[in-house]
Each structure stands twice: as C-alpha cells, then as structure tokens.
Prior knowledge:
The chain is α+β, with helices and mostly antiparallel strands. The protein has helices spanning 2-12, 37-40, 145-148, 171-183, and strands at 48-50, 55-56, 59-60, 68-72, 88-96, 106-109, 123-128, 139-141, 153-157, 163-167, 189-190, 198-202, 207-209, 220-227, 247-248.
Amino acid sequence: xxxxxxxxxxxxxxxxxxxxxxxxxxxxxxxxxxxxxxxxxxxxxxxxxxxxxxxxxxxxxxxxxxxxxxxxxxxxxxxxxxxxxxxxxxxxxxxxxxxxxxxxxxxxxxxxxxxxxxxxxxxxxxxxxxxxxxxxxxxxxxxxxxxxxxxxxxxxxxxxxxxxxxxxxxxxxxxxxxxxxxxxxxxxxxxxxxxxxxxxxxxxxxxxxxxxxxxxxxxxxxxxxxxxxxxxxxxxxxxxxxxxxxxxxxx
Length: 251
Ligand SMILES: O=C(O)CCC(=O)C(=O)O
Ligand SMILES: [Fe+2]
C-alpha cells in the first residue's frame, strides 16, 4: 500500500513550482536544501526532495520519479502499543527512496542530534518497503554506541536564518568522541532487511547508509517519536504548526 502510494505520488508531483531542492544530511550547509523554506516548512506537507546527483545546472537529469527522495507528512500510529515512552509524540515522516545509482550516502549520525530533546528521547521507526542490501544502501549501525557516545551537537534554526549545528560539549570532548568513532568505524554492522521489516533506531546510536550503487530503488518509510515530557524547544528545525501539531499517540 505505502509503496504503491509512494510510487503514485512520484508520478503525480509537479516540477513546475518545485525549487529543485536537494536532500542532504551533510555538515556543510552551503547550497543544499538546508535552511531553505521548502525544507523548513516541510513538517506538515508532502514535500519532495531530490537526490543530490539528480540536479545538474539547475535541471533534472532523469525522470522525476527516479529523482526524488519522497516525504510524506502522515503519521503512522503503528506503535500505539509499544511502550518506549511514557507519553510518545510522533513527528513528521518520510519516504526515503534511495534512487538507483544516485541514492545518496547518509553519513554517520545519531537522530537525537536532529530531533533534540532534553533529556534526549528520539526513537526512530524505520520500515523497509523493499529489500535492503549492501548494494542498494542498507543501514548499518555501530553496536553499543548509544551507550558510549554522548550527543555532542544539535541541529538548530539559526537566529540569523537558516540552520546549523550548535555544540553541546566542548570542542575537546567532541574531538575525542569523533576520534573514538573513527577508531571503531570498522565495527559497523550492516543490517540487510526484507520488505516490511521494522528497524527501531535508538536516538543515540550511530548509524549510516552508503550510496545506492545498484539498479534497484531502496524505499523505506521512517518517522520518529519523542517523549512528551522531554523539552522540545523552538531551536529545533522541525516545528509543529497549527495545520499539523505533533501527534500525541496515547493521549
Ligand atoms: O534510510 C537511510 O538511509 C537513513 C535513515 C536514517 O538515518 C533515519 O531514518 O534515521
Ligand atoms: Fe538517522
């Protein structure tokens, strides 16, 4: 259903009023989507983010349904019964399409950096809609890193506009954590999965996915939950709107 609907939306969306915004998770916030209104206002809308390598000289270099990494605002209440949080709140969801040949790498990160709360409470729900393999960019995880790696920075809306990272620890601590993470990098474990598999991602666990070098898509549906009792402030890039307030799952 979700896979079919995602593919339908990809056929339907119009490029005419599209800013050709690409989806990137990199640290450099130069010319990427980061900070632009199409991204910042995406929380309560269906928005379409293009693979970085799909836009050359301001033009798409492939059919639109093969260029997009799709975002869908609908919250799945699938986890009503799971008691990870006292009072869980579901945030915006995404369909990640990871297109053949160009589906970009997602660099090492933890999700609490991007959905920061005090104390950290992010939990990711990541559902494979298609088979995920080493060739098409399956997720990999650094086991135990959620216990040993502090959240060293948070992704924020900057007062002067746009977005960036705010450090949460001293530069010394951040350097040490980065060095340790580099030293253990070869301990990443690849999680291949089948369509329908649910992967629960602890907010502090380091994870990443490589570029899709295969000729197959790698569709996945993902959303995050946070704890209602934890502080979620106005610095976070994703803000609730009147059209779509964050949904309390058990309330
Ligand atoms: O699907 C991917 O490749 C990355 C997804 C991810 O990092 C997440 O859902 O938190
Ligand atoms: Fe993530």
